[in-house]
Q: What sequence folds into this?
């Protein structure tokens, strides 16, 4: 529930950030670097507190937290620190005939006051990576992490609010009401991570003030498994990608399409890998939990929409759902229509590669697509012909870990991208500057347009 104080508070901070940005204080590169270095030190010094908080929300082990959250945040800080100076420079471009004598350049400029709305499934990475890009590009940031991961949200708020000036970088905690209030403000930039449903709400709010917007959304990311592949490696990498964070990953393989000739063997390999990776079942410290009862109930509802090949056990009191493989799933069932976002993998056979591609094309554009095939022709056909945010061939999720690749979706899975240079660009407007010399002035463009001018 939002309080009047919170509304006044967020408006006051917004105005302070506007004033701070307009003062030019965020423009010097050294100031931006200082902010990023300070954030890096803070995260290093408070890693234990952050680990404890996320464990309470998602039961994430500290290894997984480092590998999928903190480590990626350090990478993002380091990439930005290394390149801010270069990326902030003017880029000279050729000058066309009509502007000679003169020179021309393009210059990035921070948008201004930015709002970052985070999702709960990777509560640190999805909040801080965009904030880092925003600060690197010279913006101020108000960050609202997701209320669905309250311990992580609170740990972030304490860390940031105790150590950064509010006019530069602050965290406002809260639920949908707080998000809605924030969205009424005239932001220069809104960066949203979450569901396509809320993405539409955010975009409507952004339209009201013509705020620039980046939407990082979700969807059903397929894994296409050909008959030409190393089955052990494919099974290991798909099971890892699917069940990391209990399947609550925007780029987890949502469902698997398997060539019918290798279907039986692939299912066996999947089961072998689940047994190998999550040997201790419910007691497994390496396996997370579903975020809350609402999502738990939604996921359990999918379990009777197919044949449970392996898994299916669950316990509501512990928010635990066993890694589960579903077969014989009707493609019109909700488990094949909605983003699963949990530890359930429907496996569906196909008879030829074109049919598999057509199945993917029949759904909204996914955030990620995975191809497992040693045939170049199949790899290329999928990457050339399908529309998706990003792709990893012969593995899952790895494209997110390369800062030289933009990360983002298309259509239903998002608008815009970030990470590395793309993150810097997401928070920068590129100004066009045309400089003209004054020692020469072509009279042609000025009225009156007498007949000799028209003839030219
Ligand atoms: P969500 O859309 O419910 O919430 C995201 C944020 O929006 C939260 O901060 C929440 O407080 C706020 N919000 C919720 N309802 C709102 C409303 N009516 N008005 C204004 N703000 C509102 O998403 P979620 O459940 O936190 O995350 C799951 C979704 O996010 C999945 O679809 C997943 O695929 C997607 N996701 C995408 C990425 C990516 O990088 N593309 C990463 C993680 C998650």
A:
């Amino acid at each position: 529930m939002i309080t009047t104080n919170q509304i006044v508070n967020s408006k006051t901070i917004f105005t302070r950030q506007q004033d701070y940005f307009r003062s030019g204080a965020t423009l010097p590169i050294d100031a931006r670097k200082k902010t990023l270095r300070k954030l890096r030190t803070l995260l290093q010094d408070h890693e234990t507190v952050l680990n404890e908080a996320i464990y309470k929300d998602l039961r994430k082990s500290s290894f997984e937290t480092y590998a999928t959250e903190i480590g990626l945040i350090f990478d993002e800080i380091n990439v930005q620190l290394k390149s801010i100076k270069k990326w902030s420079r003017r880029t000279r471009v050729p000058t066309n005939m009509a502007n000679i004598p003169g020179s021309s350049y393009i210059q990035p400029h921070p948008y201004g006051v930015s709002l970052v709305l985070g999702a709960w499934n990777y509560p640190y990475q999805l909040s801080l990576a965009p904030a880092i890009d925003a600060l690197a590009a010279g913006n101020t940031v108000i960050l609202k992490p997701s209320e669905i991961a309250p311990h992580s949200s609170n740990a972030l708020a304490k860390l940031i609010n105790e150590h950064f000036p509010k006019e530069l970088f602050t965290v406002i905690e809260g639920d949908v009401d707080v998000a809605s209030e924030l969205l009424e403000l005239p932001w220069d930039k809104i960066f949203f991570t979450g569901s396509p449903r809320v993405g539409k709400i955010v975009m409507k709010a952004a339209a009201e003030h013509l705020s620039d917007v980046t939407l990082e959304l979700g969807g059903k990311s397929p894994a296409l498994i050909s008959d030409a592949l190393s089955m052990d490696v494919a099974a290991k990498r798909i099971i890892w990608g699917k069940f990391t964070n209990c399947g609550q990953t925007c780029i987890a393989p949502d469902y698997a399409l398997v060539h019918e000739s290798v279907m039986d063997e692939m299912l066996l390999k999947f089961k072998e890998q689940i047994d190998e990776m999550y040997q201790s079942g419910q007691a497994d410290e390496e396996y997370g939990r579903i975020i809350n009862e609402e999502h738990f109930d939604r996921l359990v509802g999918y379990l009777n929409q197919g044949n449970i090949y392996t898994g299916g056990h669950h316990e509501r009191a512990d928010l635990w759902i066993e890694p589960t493989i579903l077969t014989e799933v009707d493609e019109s069932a909700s488990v094949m229509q909605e983003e699963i976002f949990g530890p359930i993998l429907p496996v569906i056979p196909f008879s030829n590669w074109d049919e598999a591609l057509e199945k993917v094309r029949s759904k909204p554009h996914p955030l990620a697509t995975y191809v497992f095939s040693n045939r170049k022709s199949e790899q290329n056909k999928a990457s050339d012909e399908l529309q998706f945010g990003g792709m990893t061939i012969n593995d899952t999720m790895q494209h997110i870990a390369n800062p030289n690749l933009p990360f983002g979706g298309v259509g239903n899975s998002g608008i815009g991208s970030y990470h590395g240079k793309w993150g810097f660009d997401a928070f920068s407007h590129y100004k066009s500057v045309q400089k003209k010399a004054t020692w020469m002035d072509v009279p042609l463009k000025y009225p009156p347009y007498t007949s000799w001018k028209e003839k030219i």
User: Anything to note?
Assistant: The first strand starts at residue 91 and ends at 93. The mean pLDDT is 95.
